[in-house]
Write a structure and sequence with these properties.
Layout lengths: L14 H10 L2 H19 L4 H11 L10
Helix pairs in contact: 2-3
Length: about 70
């Protein structure tokens, strides 16, 4: 949404909220968290410790740095 890509939003009632959230998050941090999610899925498929994988995954997720309520 914040990159100007034309998307179809399923729940149009949430469009304003989605735009606020997209503007509040650092795009590089979001990309990093998506890559980390893929890594976490791979680790879980290869029998890694679930608790450690989830903990590491949550630590890398971006925070809302602009004070906009989620």
């Amino acid at each position: 949404l914040s990159a100007g890509v034309s998307l179809t939003i399923s729940n149009v009632d949430e469009e304003a909220r989605l735009r606020r959230l997209a503007a509040a998050w650092n795009k590089d941090a979001v990309l990093t968290s998506l890559k980390q999610t893929n890594l976490a899925l791979w680790q879980l498929e290869h029998n890694a410790n679930t608790r450690l994988v989830i903990e590491n995954l949550l630590l890398i997720y971006p925070f809302n740095t602009k004070g906009i309520p989620n």
